[in-house]
């Protein structure tokens, strides 16, 4: 096969930040017409390398060649001149403006000898580009009125409008629904089909297998390998990314269901704006199962968790733990009734960052007799307790006296899980338990959750990650606008069906019979 020409070559790029070498003598080559994935865990140095290519950072060492010519990219304007465009993780759009106004911002076409902006020409060009690459963007729509997926396409159009031939996407699927991800992959294929070249930054193996032609793996700032995707597999990639063997498949034996332990009936709860966030939510969770709550963020998940843990008042309906209604009880009483929570936001609700790991291990139990002697905290007992949890849950910390703040995200999360599981709850609520964590930590946490379920505990998994829901759950309940609109088994559904249920429940009957939505 004929080798396509190299459009970008980065040689021995080193970029340092105080205390860290983000890119350590990195070599990277992008060929014309390919989708090249840049794979690595959080903090591996992926964004830094591409920010260097886009001129946002200046490397301390190394050379860059674009189309065979050595270049110095001293800012994004230079990158754009060289035909490089970047779609960032966080969009930079002006909301009250239209799509086209955003796209031309900073490079307005002029008429009347440069005295006025030629909007008509701009709208036409945006429309033409949108058609050419199958982006399906309305050039006249206001940014306020379009979905996140559409906003991302506006960012893509912006790079194309400025003449980009080399497009960098930084974790583009993180903010998208399953349908939108499918559409984005088609768009990327369209782009390379018409001669563009793409760098796709991601830590999702599934995406790489689905779309990329080649992959470069980085770990702790260094390139580990660069190879064609056709000759590799997810396990091999995971191993290179993490630096040790990882099992991607969970060993899950068949669930042994016990009696119902959490019964939520017709729950109505007000949200932040005073409107109903839960509109009659009902479901049952049994011992020995993992029930996954799937849904697009903002459909009542946070309010459900808050209501279940006593942090948000319930307007009507009931929550029964082992048969006893806990509605109206204080959080401590609910915790004692057997509900434990691995919270959504581990910094705000999971840990006190300025406390040592030791104290964080007894945040909710310090008043109990085993940690308390005649009204004084028994630090010896608390210390022993913390040492044991740190060891059992492989929390990597220099000592139990280290502040929680100093731990990595994965180790902070392990510490929370250790504490919550050790309370020996009836029901363990895991809210986004692996958000932002790397493959190694995800593997560990998933195993612990399955272990709890195998021990006969009930696990309620609330996650926006469909892969996680599909992998862990024994049963999936889909939440949409505060109602459970359907229940399915992972083995009997797929991403597409779940995606439909998550966005427009009318496509799927079943659920709690709430057909006359408002
Ligand atoms: N502007 C910055 N200042 C200081 N440190 C940074 C900066 N940007 C990134 N880093 C550090 O560099 C390392 C690589 O980060 P990054 O390139 O963002 O990783 P990735 O995109 O692979 O998750 C991390 O340790 C990160 O904390
Ligand atoms: Mg990044």
TrEMBL record:
SMART domains for this protein: AAA
Species: Cohnella phaseoli
Keyword line: ATP-binding, Cell membrane, Membrane, Nucleotide-binding, Repeat, Translocase, Transport
Record-given protein name: Nucleoside ABC transporter ATP-binding protein
Database matches in Pfam families: ABC_tran
GO cellular component: plasma membrane
PROSITE patterns: ABC_TRANSPORTER_1, ABC_TRANSPORTER_2
Coiled coil: none
